[in-house]
Specification:
Blueprint: H1 7-31, H2 38-63, H3 71-92, H4 99-113, E1 121-122, H5 130-165, H6 170-174, H7 178-210, H8 221-240, H9 248-266, E2 278-279, H10 283-288
Antiparallel strand pairs: 1-2
Length: 300
């Protein structure tokens, strides 16, 4: 847990402030492009992401492992990957309308994540193993990709609604065509699915070799939800091969799949299960927050 007056905390606070400014400029640029400069919004999001990454790098150096040892770290790490992927797609495909949908959501969750700073839920197992790295990194990247596919689904349904209502205003003109959004939904799901598969396979190897989840590791809630997530997106990709499964149908199923992703990500963490975060660890606080003078460290 981080001292609210520590420089590390201020790094993330600066990122949040920049994200707030970016959200205002992103949404404003859709409706009043003459007032809200897209160039300035690009500056806000890139600078905010830089501070966000700097925060995670410092935390990672302090802990000596991935910045996911607490629920707060995991949340901020996940949010950083969403921003990073959305920025890449924004400039790769010239999608100026992507970040206006992404950043208000990321900003809201970033502000909410500050409430987790003093949360005492922390991981209780060693993160410095190859299989755990091979398990976590692909999973987080896969979750970020599925999040962007969820955003594209929202954009698709929004654009479809604009067409049905024949509301051809600034929002309609700023959004890509339905065909483009349908293709982007497909691409992000196609990106996220192999990453999810790699993460689950590596996690299976790790669980069996370390025996940290016991002999019945496959009954662990997070394992079960992860398998359900895999089945949902595997079904989407399979059904996509059919000519009739596209557009609105894909968007709706993708949104449902994303709900399961969120449950998989935060559900077991809040259950105090072995595969999530348990109470009682103060490792993060000891490593980052300065210890008050006159208080000796107690070694277990």
């Amino acid at each position: 847990m981080i001292n609210l007056l520590s420089p590390i905390q201020y790094i993330f606070i600066v990122a949040i402030v920049l994200y707030i400014l970016d959200s205002v400029w992103e949404v404003g640029s859709l409706f009043r492009p003459g007032t809200f400069s897209k160039r300035l919004s690009n500056y806000f999001i890139l600078t905010g992401l830089s501070f966000h990454c700097a925060f995670l790098i410092v935390v990672s150096i302090r802990s000596g492992t991935l910045p996911i040892t607490t629920l707060f770290e995991s949340s901020t790490f996940y949010l950083s990957l969403i921003v990073l992927l959305s920025v890449i797609l924004k400039f790769l495909y010239r999608l100026q309308s992507l970040t206006p949908f992404v950043m208000p959501i990321v900003t809201g969750f970033s502000i909410a994540s500050v409430a987790l700073v003093r949360n005492d839920l922390a991981l209780t197992y060693n993160l410095k193993t190859f299989w755990l790295f091979a398990h976590i990194i692909p999973l987080f990247l896969g979750y970020a990709s599925f999040t962007i596919s969820f955003i594209f689904s929202i954009m698709y349904l929004t654009q479809e609604r604009q067409l049905k209502k024949k509301s051809f205003g600034p929002l309609f003109e700023s959004l890509p065509s339905l065909e483009t959004l349908d293709a982007l939904m497909w691409k992000t799901i196609t990106l996220g699915f192999p990453l999810l598969t790699i993460g689950l396979v590596a996690g299976t190897v790790w669980a069996k070799t370390s025996n940290i989840l016991g002999l019945l590791w496959y009954l662990d809630p997070k394992v079960t939800l992860g398998a359900l997530t895999w089945l949902i997106y595997a079904a989407i990709l399979h059904l996509r091969l059919g000519a009739s499964f596209h557009g609105t149908k894909v968007a709706i199923v993708t949104i449902a799949g994303f709900v399961v992703v969120i449950l998989t990500f935060i559900g077991p963490f809040l259950m105090g299960h072995k595969h999530g975060y348990e109470k009682g660890s103060v490792k993060f606080e000891q490593e980052i927050a300065p210890e008050p003078p006159g208080i000796a460290k107690v070694k277990s």
